[in-house]
Structures are given as C-alpha cells and as structure tokens.
Design a protein that fits this description.
alpha/beta, eleven-stranded mixed sheet, seven-stranded mixed sheet, 18 helices, 23% helix, Methyltransf_12, transferase, Protein-L-isoaspartate O-methyltransferase, hydrolase, NUDIX_hydrolase_CS
Length: 787
C-alpha cells in the first residue's frame, strides 16, 4: 500500500506481476458486461494487460490505463500482436484525463486496484461520469473476509463496499474465487445529506474549530470516519487556545499535515445546536500546509482523501458542522443543509491557489473557441479568458461544464419555481460584452448582478490600476461572490449588497463617474442611476428587453442621451429589484393560447375568442429562408415598428389548436378590435440535404380586421427582407437607437419609432424607414407610436 508510482514501475520491470485473471472472472464479465456494437471499455489499472486483452476479445475497443510505465512496457511487448487496445500511461488520481475518449465508455473496470486509490470517492465519481447510457462500472476486489489479516490493507470491508455501491441505480454483487465482483449501473450520485453524530447529553455550549484545507488541485480534505460519515479535520478548543491554533493542532493530530497559525484564518462563525447543546463552530481556512497525508487516528477514521468540490453534492452522509463549514467557504456546493446562523468575518485572507492540469487545458480550449468565433478580438480580453479560473466561480459543476466553450451558461441558483436567478454567462457572451466596454488600463467599472467570474474578467482587462464595483440584491449571491473573490480574486473587486437599479453607493462612485458599466441581467427599462453614474463618453452595456426580445446593447453616454453602438443577440436571468416587471398576460381558449403584452400594457381582447373560433385568413409574404437562417432581427423589427404588437404563445399541439403554432413556442402578433394576426413560417421545400430545405414566412389572421392586420404584418416582413436582412447571418442591419430621459418632449426627439418605458424613451430608426413615416394601421392608445 505504500508503493509509489516509481515503485510500481520497478515492480513490473523486475518481472513481478499480480494475481492472474481467473476463468470465473472471465465468465462473469462475458455474461454481465457483453460488448455492444461499437463498444468501448476502459481498463483502469491494467497492469501487464491481461484483462484488457480479454475485453478486446469480447469485442471492445479498449483503453488500458496504468500509471506504471514498467507495467505498460511489458504489456506492449507481451501483447504486441493484439489489436484494439490503446496502452496509456496515466495516473487517474493526478494526471489530466485528456487522453481518455471524450465520448465515454460502455464498460469501466477496476480490477484489484480500488483499495490502492487514495482519492477513491473522486476517482469513482469521475469514472462513473464517463459511462455511456446503460454502461457499467465493474470493480473486482479482495474482501476482508477472505484476506489474511496482515494483507487486509488491500481488501474491502462491508462498510467500504456499501460506500462504493451507494447511489448507483443497480448493483449486482457476484463472486469469483473469493473475489467480490461488483457490477454498478445507472447514476453514480448518492445525494449528500447532513447528519449528526449520536445525540449529545445536555450540557454547556460546545465550541470547536474545523479546518478547511485544499491541495494543489483545489480539492478539499475530508475524512471518512468510523461513524459512517465524512468529516473535516477539527475538534474542541483546549483551555484558552485560539480557534486558529485549535484547527492547526487538530489537522496535525488527525492527518499528519502541518500548518502555521499565521496561515489559518477564521472566516465564519456558525451557531446552531446539537440536541439541547448550543454549538459554536469556527470555520478556519488554512491557506498553506506541508507534510504527507496519513491517518494517525485509525480508531476514529478509516482514511483521509482530497475530494473534488463538484463531488460534494453527492457523497452521502456528511457531519452537519462539516457540511455547513464547506458551504461557508464555497456557498452552494453542498445542497439541502439544515438551518444555521452564520457570522462571516471580514478577514484579510490571501487568495488560495490550486487547480488541476485539466482545468488549465480546458480553459485554453474554451478561450480558443471564443477567439476563433471572433468574440474576443483584443489581447487583454483574450488574456483574461486564458487566465481567470472560471471553474472556481462555479465549483458545484464539472470542469467540462464550467469550461463549455459553446452557448451554455452555468446555472448556479434557481428560485422556488425552478427558474434560473443566477448564473455564470457563456464565455463568448462575457467576452463580447467586455469588448464593447472599450476599457482602458486603470478603468473603474460598475457591474450590476454579481457572481464573481465576470467581475474578475473585467478587473483583469482593466489591469493592476483598475477597479470593479459589483452590486447584487441577493444576500446569498453576495456571500458567495465575496467568498469566491477572496479565494481566487485579484483584490480589485468590491462587492455590495443592494438593489443594483439604484447604482453604486455614493462613496464608491469615482469623481466624474464610472468609465464603464455592465448590467448582467435582463432589463425591461434603463435605471436613471446607470446613466447618471456613468462618465461622459463612457460605455453602458446591458441586456435590454424590447418587445420581449433581448439584445446586449452597448450605449455611449453623450450628455443625457445614450447612443447605441453595438447589438448582440443574447438572453439573461430576469431582474429582481425595483425594476423587476411582470409582463401582462391574457389566456385564451381554455389556456390553449397566451397573449403576452411585452411593452407593458395589456390591450382589450373582448370578442377575440369568438374570432379565433371563426375562419382563418392567410397571406404568403413571398419571403423565404433556408436552414440556419437568422431571423432574430425580424422579431425585433416587428416589435419596434408594428403598433399593438404582442406575442402569441401556444400551449397545445398544433393539430389540437386553431393557430398551427408549435407547442410552447411563441410568434410575433398584432392585435385589433376582436381581431388578431400573427407571423409564422411553413416549410415549402424538403430534401435529404439540410441546404435543400426551405421555409416561407406566412401571416395568419382572425376576425373582421384580420385581413388588414395580416397585410400590415406582411408589409413589415417584406420591408425587413429588403432593408435589414443579409445573406450573412452576422451582417443583418441594426437600427439607430437612442435613449432619452422619460418626459423628453416629442418635438425634441429625433425621427423614428418611439417606445416609452417608465424611466426612458427609446427612439428606433431602422434602415428604409425614412421621415416622414406613414401612420400605420393600429388601435387607439397603442404603446408604440410613429413620429
């Protein structure tokens, strides 16, 4: 058990081996894990390759992995004639798993090697995540019952087998020549649950310190105790001993690791009770340590291991104070915790480095994807993408999810209905919005809506003399952001709990205003404070909802007017502060349809249901598109140029309704007196190839005014096609957009379509809409008028 990587390599190089693969093991593998068509297997800890070769004979393409090069040299030589096996030198506990196949495996085997793993929990979890649907993890291991006492260190007892098999959908326990053969399938996640030790006797309040320690890869140290739960190093104070000293002492006594008191920081005090006993727990973050991990207290702990943070949500039983302490350092990593009163302390804790090589590789790959997509043309933004450890602001997710270079945000918080209320935005969108800020070295930037990652990216671009003030209304988000910035940050980001619609506290606003501001949640309106706290010529970038369609728009301040300079199609979480807005909604036909009045005022719908039960009028626009065409500019064009605009959503299958709209989809619409027209598309050409397919925009209408409303929408589509649309999806024309304070008289506004919101007036001028503009067909009192 004390062998090092070099020892194992020498072991095999000297001609020594391991227990031979038995016929009974072969029979069980062939019966319970037959190779599917195109099956791929991973033999972890393959040794000289006997099992890998057998799996290849079953029809698997095999990746045979061992960390001992001496074993692999023998395997390559002894099985040179065998095809279908890749021999990989890889330490599954420490090395970057890049050589493994990204598309996963149908079978993963760990034969006679599981007891040798120091990080059993994380390794098995990671291997389980690589299983394809229906795949199996097979562990073949000695058990204590059939192992001599002097060799029981390489065997598993029943408690360890129970821990290994917990959380899998199906578990088959088989036997082969006194070896346990465990066939595990389904999710490998057993939900984390906070548990107490035995009920303590009534008495005075108990105080203790828990040490939170991470390794060079950012994994946290946990011990599997004889009580059947995971715990942090720690224990009670002795006499007048400080909490910091107690944590350092307990760390040494329980794990053999050494730390200095000056590298221990009490970051939070937790107050709760165990039974009738009040309990006060100090959460001590240890930033530097030395030594070799051991288990001096074998009567109390089975073992200690460093666990990946994202695994903390599915490790089974955790001692309550330990779970709460983990949440205090990384809020959100441990779900469903019992209540506790937390007193975070303002301490000058230094950042704590540590990340696996896999994170570095994935971050570089993510940055390359963003750069190749032309979202990060400047070197400062590129360097920020390559440098800022994104995964440390979303520790509850896998590295591959944190560094997804595509269009996916990382959701970090949901409300009671399941709606997303906090996230880390997609990397390309972060880069694009930061680019449009046009930051100079030393810039001071305001951010509304926190999380930490975006603020740290901005701080990196602004440079050593720059500063970011980030504000969020959610106390949980603020606590989480503050902790993550402390753990990883540059020290140039200030986090404030407040309603971001009110701007930054006056004491943090620089003389002359912020050089730039970024809002990171959907905004129906533009808060006056964002303009007032912005320096003349400064940039404000925010996701603005116009007609329910969101665009990240970069504005430049000139006096009291904001001028749009850049548009990006996007989507964000909704605002929660005083600007949060409920969109008026009207349900029709027994909730089969919904009208959404995105501009803020619900129109009269009397007689509309009767019209919807009548005849449907149809107009073909003659405007077509092929697969992959972008039509977001058409939606925005209609929302800003058509009076009485609304959105029509369907909640039933097309063949069950009257509209033909796909279920759970919505389309642009215009409302008249007991009349409605809406825009949809129908397929007009089909073909085997994607490029052979074609669709045409068609307007459907109901009611007496239906034909007139339909023609209005059709004219809108044709105008868009003529003046806005481009064959290149990235070249669609954007409108000229200016934002003026609410109450600005109409005669002082430039020509264009005017959209009034509570705090501002938007003036939109599209190509081809020249003054004087004709007054379109619509109903009196429409929210949008043409000037």
């Amino acid at each position: 058990m004390g062998y090092t990587r070099a020892d194992w390599s020498n072991h095999y190089a000297a001609g020594k081996g391991f227990r031979r693969l038995g016929d009974k093991e072969k029979d069980l593998l062939a019966e319970h894990a037959p190779a599917p068509a195109g099956g791929r297997a991973l033999d972890a800890g393959c040794g000289t390759g006997e099992l890998a070769v057998f799996l290849a004979s079953l029809g698997y393409a095999v990746d045979a992995v061992d960390f001992a090069e001496g074993a692999l040299e023998r395997a390559r030589a002894e099985h040179a004639a065998v095809g279908g096996v890749r021999w990989l030198c890889l330490d599954l506990e420490r090395d970057d798993p890049a050589p493994l196949h990204e598309d996963g495996y149908d079978l993963v085997t760990l034969r006679l090697m599981y007891p040798f793993l120091a990080r059993r929990m994380s390794v098995v979890h990671a291997l389980g995540e690589r299983l394809r649907p229906g795949g199996a993890l097979v562990v073949i291991t000695p058990v204590v019952e059939h192992t001599p006492e002097e060799r029981r260190g390489i065997a598993l007892d029943e408690d360890e087998i129970g821990l290994l098999t917990e959380g899998w959908e199906t578990v088959e326990r088989l036997e082969a020549d006194q070896l346990a053969v465990l066939v595990l399938r389904g999710p490998c996640h057993s939900g984390t649950r906070a548990v107490e030790r035995q009920r303590p006797p009534a008495g005075p309040a108990a105080t203790a310190a828990l040490a939170v320690v991470t390794d060079e890869a950012g994994r946290v140290l946990l011990g599997r105790s004889r009580r059947g739960m995971w715990e942090l190093p720690g224990g009670k104070n002795v006499g007048s001993e400080s909490f910091e000293a107690a944590a350092v002492r307990e760390l040494a006594e329980e794990t053999g690791l050494a730390a200095e008191v000056e590298n221990a920081y009490v970051v939070t005090m937790l107050a709760d009770a165990a039974g009738d006993v009040p309990r006060l727990t100090a959460v001590v973050r240890i930033t530097t340590w030395s030594g070799t991990l051991t288990n001096p207290e074998v009567d109390t702990f089975d073992r200690w291991e460093f666990v990946d943070l994202h695994v903390l949500s599915c490790i089974g039983a955790v001692f309550v104070p330990a779970a709460q302490a983990l949440d205090a350092v990384w809020p959100g990593v441990v779900p469903n915790l019992p209540p506790v009163v937390s007193y975070p302390l303002a301490v000058d804790q230094p950042p704590v480095p540590g990340e696996p090589a896999e994170a570095v590789r994935l971050r570089q790959a993510m940055a390359k994807t963003v750069i190749d997509g032309s979202w990060a043309p400047s070197e400062p933004v590129r360097d920020a993408l390559r440098t800022v450890p994104r995964h440390r602001f979303a520790p509850e997710v896998r590295l591959t999810d944190a560094y997804d270079g595509g269009d996916r945000a990382v959701i970090t918080r949901r409300d009671g209905t399941g709606a997303t209320i906090s996230s880390v935005s997609a990397a390309w969108l972060q880069a694009d919005m930061i680019e449009t800020l046009c930051l100079k070295p030393g810039a001071i930037v305001f951010e509304a809506g926190s999380g930490g990652c975006n603020a740290e990216l901005i701080a990196h671009v602004a440079g050593p003399d720059g500063r970011v003030v980030t504000v969020d209304i959610d106390p949980w988000v603020v606590r989480r952001t503050r902790r993550f910035l402390t753990e990883t940050g540059s020290g140039r980001v200030s986090i404030v709990e407040a309603d971001a619609a009110l701007g930054a506290p006056a004491r943090l606003v620089p003389r002359g205003g912020f050089d730039a501001s970024m809002i990171t949640y959907n905004c129906w309106d533009i808060a006056p404070a964002w303009r007032e706290q912005l320096a003349e010529g400064g940039r404000l970038v925010l996701p603005l909802e116009i007609g329910g369609y969101t665009r990240a728009i970069a504005f430049e301040r000139r006096g009291q007017v904001l001028y749009a300079r850049h548009f990006t199609y996007c989507g964000f979480v909704r605002d929660q502060g005083q600007q949060a807005r409920t969109i008026p909604v009207v349900s029709l036909l027994n909730d089969g349809l919904t009208l959404r009045f995105e501009h803020g005022t619900a129109a009269e719908t009397a007689g509309l249901e009767e019209a919807l039960r009548g005849a449907r009028h149809e107009i073909a626009t003659g405007v077509t598109m092929r697969a992959g065409a972008f039509f977001g500019s058409l939606q925005l064009y209609a929302a800003t140029t058509v009076p009485s605009f609304c959105r029509l959503a369907a909640h039933q299958d097309p063949d069950q309704g009257v509209t033909g709209i796909a279920k759970d989809r919505d389309v642009p619409a215009v409302l008249g007196d007991a009349s409605l027209a809406y825009l949809t598309c129908i397929q007009t050409k089909d073909g085997k190839r994607r490029e052979d397919k074609e669709w045409e925009w068609v307007v459907h209408a109901f009611g007496e005014q239906g034909p007139q409303l339909a023609e209005q929408l059709a004219v809108t589509v044709r105008a868009w096609d003529r003046h806005v649309r481009a064959d290149d999806n990235s070249k669609h024309a954007d409108p000229v957009l200016t934002v003026h304070p609410a109450g600005t008289p109409g005669h002082l506004l430039p020509a264009g379509d005017v959209l009034d919101k509570k705090h501002c007036r938007l003036v939109i001028r599209w190509p081809g809409r020249h003054a004087p503009l004709p007054h379109p067909v619509g109903r009196p009192g429409a929210d949008m008028v043409t000037e």
